Amino acid sequence: MSTSQQLFEKFLIAQRSEYLRNLPGKVAQIAANWRSMASGCADRDRRAELERLTHTLAGTAGTLGFVATGNSAQALELLVQQAGRGGADWAALNAVIERAIGL
């Protein structure tokens, strides 16, 4: 393995470690935003922030090799988008989202 490959491996390990350290805080942020939306504060900015958080979590997880986390975050992003469009069975959708984020 070349020196550049070794450096990249060390960098990737550090990034994965940092991601894991920050993951509980990111999930807590998503949960807090969802609770706010579910309690009736579903303005456009809050919904956009929640979509951004879930989208970022999904993308970063996938990039760093946390496939299950990325897939779950992507599914959550789609649920949040569905909730934002309205017309869905809100009670059922709310229960699914709360289970997904551990509420």
Structural class: mainly alpha
Give the CA-based shape. Answer: elongated
Order of H and E elements? HHHH
**Number of helical regions:** 4
Can you walk through the features of this model?
This protein has 103 residues and is mainly α. It is 83% helix and 0% strand. The protein is elongated, with a radius of gyration of 16 Å. The termini are far apart.
Task: Looking at this protein, list some descriptive labels.
single chain, 103 residues, mainly alpha, elongated
Show the helix and strand layout.
Blueprint: H1 3-38, H2 44-63, H3 67-85, H4 90-100
Helix pairs in contact: 1-2, 2-3, 3-4
Report a brief summary of the structure:
The protein is mainly alpha-helical and 103 residues long.
